Amino acid sequence: MTDFSMVGPRFAGGPAIEEPWAPDLTFVPPNLTPDNSTGHIVDWSEDQFVARFRAGASIEGSPMDWRMFARMSETDLRAIYRYLMSLDPVHNDTGPTVRPRADG
Ligand code: HEM
């Protein structure tokens, strides 16, 4: 059972999530703060961010509900992007967003 306690700096990635429908995989939410070396979207333009959300899931079984997020308004997505880019950078390397389960 995944522990969803929010630990560590906000928006900086993790903790790992395991889902019953993907028994061999562990998913890790990326660091969304604008840290130059570990920020997952630091090199994305605002347009790329919107396009990424419109595209839906790229990793099968992801716990992030991309079908829902793909339907967010462009205004909301641009606001979220600008908010994330306004955060203090947090240096936190969370590694690959999907990886084999350690105990799998
Ligand atoms: C407005 C809310 C959210 C934003 C802005 C957001 C943003 C993002 C972004 C930009 C990525 C990287 C996608 C890529 O590399 O192509 C990502 C991946 C991910 N997110 Fe979210 N996310 C949100 C909500 C959530 C929620 C609610 C969860 C968990 C329940 C979640 C879990 C994950 C995970 C596990 C990944 C890595 C796997 C994947 O790329 O699908 N996210 N998120």
Task: Report on the biggest sheet.
Answer: 2 strands, antiparallel
Helical proportion? 25-40%
Rounded mean pLDDT is: 93
| Shape designation | globular
Distance between the termini: 14 Å
Category from helices, strands and their pairing: mainly alpha
Number of strands: 2
Q: Order of helices and strands, N to C? A: EHHHE
What does this structure look like?
By secondary structure, the protein is mostly helical. It has one domain (25-100). The protein contains three helices and two strands, in the order βαααβ. It has helices at residues 46-55, 66-69, 74-86; strands at 25-27, 98-100. The protein has a two-stranded antiparallel sheet with strand order 1-2. α1 crosses α3. The protein is globular, with a radius of gyration of 14 Å. The model has no long low-confidence stretch (mean pLDDT 93). Bound molecules: protoporphyrin IX containing FE. Protoporphyrin IX containing FE binds at residues 17, 27, 29-30, 32, 40-41, 52, 57-59, 62-64, 80, 97-98.
